Predict the 3D structure of the following.
Amino acid sequence: MSTPSAKDVINAFSRVMREKLENGETVEVPGLGTFSVEHRPSRMTEDADGESYMAPPRDVVTFDPAE
């Protein structure tokens, strides 16, 4: 059995993190911070030409650094 490479560890971590965030869970990384998903509702906005349009709702990943 060989030692996993840094790339393998990072890939595994990101797979687990993505899965948890997709399920609405918060991911806390000790010494680094907390990742979570926040819902942003639809809203009216303007483009560069001054045209108004409705921006769709979306979920975004947020990060709170550890203190």
Notes: Helices lie at 6-22. The beta strands are 27-29, 33-40, 43-46, 52-55, 58-65. Residues 6-65 form a domain with the HU Protein; Chain A fold (CATH 4.10.520.10). Residues 6-22 form the longest helix (17 residues).
